[in-house]
Amino acid sequence: MTYHLRAFVPSRPFRSVLSVLAVACFATLATGVIATDACAAPPPPKVAELMTKSLSNLPGQEVLMLTVEYPPGGADPVHRHDAHGFIYVLEGSIVMGVKGGKEVTLTPGQTFYEGPADIHTVGRNASKTKPAKFVVFLVKKQGVDAVLPAH
Predict the structure, then answer these.
(1) Angle value at C-alpha 113, between 112 and 115, nearest 5 degrees
(2) Which residue of 42, 45, 101, 136 has the lowest C-beta tally within 10 Å?
(3) What's the Cα-to-Cα distance from 28 to each of 4, 11, 22, 38, 41, rounded to whole Å?
(4) What domains appear along the chain, each with residue ranges and CATH number?
(5) How far apart are CA 66 and CA 71, in angstroms?
(6) What's the pLDDT tens digit per position in 17-71?
(7) Main-chain phi, psi angles of 34, to 5 degrees
(8) Cα–Cα dist 48/135, whole Å
(9) Are residues 72 and 138 in contact, defined by beta-carbon separation less than 8 angstroms?
């Protein structure tokens, strides 16, 4: 048995479609590279410890006070605190949320609470152009890190 193979030469309309597809694929790849850069991790917050104080009437517990500054577009990764966390916004606007709760946008003078069992799923600057600053007051176990992995 003999097989004859003919070279496939696409017709003009088919070549046009191929050209469009090639350009579309290239554009998708180029956009993917750009989108990857755009999806890079947000700038991390600047955290400063203000004080740590043992609580004599609560053995094994301490208070940790921090200031957190989010740069424009800044955010925290998902995490938790084995602590009672009280947040007070000083400057700018922040978005906070815990697993199972609604995201809230807070402005100066507003507060937020997260408990020891909460997973902090959202913590970010609401602005891409202005910084935000807030105070964090944690009541936590002595010797336990203030920020823990979410799992």
Answers:
(1) 160
(2) 101
(3) 38, 26, 10, 15, 22
(4) 46-141 (2.60.120.10)
(5) 16
(6) 434 444 444 444 455 544 445 567 889 999 999 999 999 999 999 999 999 999 9
(7) -65, -45
(8) 10
(9) no
**What is the enclosing helix (H) or strand (E) of 134?**
strand 132-141
With residue 46 as reference, give the H or E element that holds it: strand 46-54
What 3 state SS string does 82-105 have? CEEEEEEEEECCEEEEECCCCCEE
pLDDT (0 to 100) of residue 2: 46
Report the C-alpha gap between 52 and 142 in whole angstroms.
Answer: 10
* Higher local confidence (pLDDT), 110 or 29: 110
pLDDT value at position 25?
45
